[in-house]
Amino acid sequence: MLKDPILDGLNERQKEAVLHFDSPLLVLAGAGSGKTKVITHKIMYLVKHFHIPLGRILAITFTNKAAEEMKERVEKALGERPQWVMTFHSFAAKFLRIEAENIGYDRNFVIYDEDDSKKLIKKVLKDLNLNEELLKPEKLKDQISRIKQEENPEDYLELLSFSTPYIRNIYEKYQEELKNSNAFDFDDLLLKSVNILKNYPDILQRWQNKFDYILVDEYQDTNKLQHQLLKLLVGNKKTITVVGDPAQCIYTWRGAHPENILDFEKDFPNTKIIKLERNYRSTKKILDAANTVISKSKGKWKSKLLTLWTEKEEGEEIKLIPRENEKEEADFIAQKIKELSASEPYREFAVLVRMSFLTRNLEESMVRYGIPYQIVGGLKFYERAEIKDILSYLRLALNPKDYASFERSLTTPPRGIGDKGLEYIKSKFKEDWIQALRDSLNAFNQKAKAKAQEYLEIMDYVRKNVNENPSKVAKYVVDSINYEEYLQKEYEKDWEERLANVEELIVALEEVEKSGKTLTEFLEESSLSQAQDSIENSDKVKIMTVHAAKGLEFKTVFVAGLEEGIFPSGRAFDDPTQMEEERRLFYVAITRAKDRLFLTYAKERRSFSNKPVQTKPSQFLTDIKQHLKVPSSGSKKPKIETEIPTSKPKATTYFDDDIKAG
Question: Helix 35-49 to helix 12-19 angle, to the nearest 10 degrees?
């Protein structure tokens, strides 16, 4: 019997998953178990043996990086690049480019990122004469996001109204302003897609008929809307495979709904479950610790937890490194990386933290020891002020209803048109902000009028040329508004770096022109970019939060700041569900390591008031104490608490800065 090259290199469980088509399939795939391989080989099998066209297979992943990796593997094997391998949000954006006209949007809609959304909320509060300091736009953005992710948004909005009396007015005004700007925020991409499929049976049927098979990765991190979207697309068919690992569900604060995977069989009857427990990434010692951590999970999670195993060697001991304070902790990490870098490139090292404020001391130590590093998950390239400044001109040219881009481009650099001027322009708005400005010119003083006319001339050129030559248009904008001079005045310390970023944007636009992509596609991709998309291939140590490290692997991993109140976060002490998620987050941190794992903590850490505070080692260290080795340093071995603390430690009030650190 001839061997099938598609099945070569797969273990028995992986083969079983690739070959199962008789019913819905849930693949419980542990960390490092080759789940991407299963998905890509299943796509190949569908094309080669069932003769399903690649364009009729939909594969959903959770990061652009994973989607790109999957596309490359399939293209290499089949000689054809898949059209429908993407994230949920990318799928929804593509869907809406086709169907948004059914709900009163045109296809040139823009996607508002977090910064755009917060600015719009500030505008809404101002329009409603509500106190921004009291209501806090950031908190309102989270509440609006939560409303949109609920199965019954109206019911949740009603419930929220008891604690936030103005939330209904704010929500409705915010949605109205988005519609007026022909814009969607991230949650709207999913919400509007689901609503169209629910309310337009002919559209639903067309999209159900569009795909012969659907595969979804990282299913444990889907939210309610994503689950609904998937159910609508699948309909009554059995042609679905989802892959996930409940032990790696770490995004409930962002709306992930673990019941989607825990109760998958209820929504998709006759589901077959296959477990992938063989790990190809980590040594046995690392896996033993990971299995011990996750085995202490409680509740319904127990039934779907995996026990990872490997044929790799035992490996090095897991080292627990206590240090007197945070600076000594950071210095140890830098020293050890410097020492090990003699035999391994810097790109094979990662330093993981629970909260982003911990990176400051680590950065200082990296600089002191001359170690190249990259902070992953900081401000994304396309969220930088200088990038948004230039892109606002291009975005407005494509979508003349986009108020956020109009206001930003008109006021960068300042042209003497303040709040009163903007209010007057709003009164003239019908369908086009550029036209509204033209209709408002006579209301301005001579200086502001002259500046506004210069702006209109710039926008006339941008509108005329933006689709054919976006890089040339971006250069024209930079020169026409004397942007370099503006940066020098506005950002004395780092204007050169900001200018270099603008130059990099122009290079990116030149690449768009060469690739044949449209500017709209480029702007969509940049709006949907993620922290992992910014990871450089250069030889640098990666410093990131554990959330940002999801899906990645490194030969040597340091997990820093393992103290009560930091990891686990202080907020988790009053909420058992949240504490369970902290446990899963620690499991994810451990399983990023292939060969070496160092766990560190500081016995004393300075608080935000700059006072030293005594800390306690993380309770998770107690859970795995039998797997840890504390190297002798000539001083007395630190004691790891043998009992898990039951009360909230004093230190948590200082370090509980961002549970959403990812």
Answer: 40
For the question of residue 446 being annotated catalytic, the response is no
The band of 537, judged by pLDDT with boundaries at 50, 70 and 90, is confident
Tell me the pLDDT tens digit for each residue of 541-578: 999 999 989 889 999 999 999 999 999 998 899 899 99
In this predicted structure, the answer to whether residue 650 has a pLDDT above a threshold of 50 is: no
CA distances 198 to 229, 230, 233, 235, 560, Å, are 9, 12, 10, 12, 47
Mark out the alpha helices in 26-136 (DSSP H runs): 35-49, 64-78, 88-99, 114-127, 132-135
Whether 600 is catalytic is: no
Strands (E), 372-494: 373-376
Give yes or no: 592 in active site. yes
State the amino acid at position 176 in one-letter form: E
What does the pLDDT average to over 362-377? 91
Q: E strands of 326-390, at which residues? A: 349-353, 373-376
Exactly one of 218, 348, 524, 563 is catalytic; name it: 218
Q: Which of 61, 248, 412, 545 is catalytic?
A: 248
Q: What's the pLDDT band for 492 if we cut at 50, 70, 90?
A: confident
- Note if 218 is an active site residue: yes
**Residue among 13, 35, 71, 415 flagged as catalytic:** 35
pTM of the model: 0.85
- CA diameter of the chain: 86
The identity of residue 208, as a single letter, is Q
Instruction: Write phi, then psi, for 13 (nearest 5 degrees).
Output: -70, -40
pLDDT surpasses 50 at 370: yes
> Considering 304, 592, 603, 605, which one is annotated as catalytic?
592
> Does residue 658 carry a pLDDT above 80?
no
Out of 4, 16, 36, 657, the active site residue is 36
Catalytic residue among 188, 217, 348, 582: 217
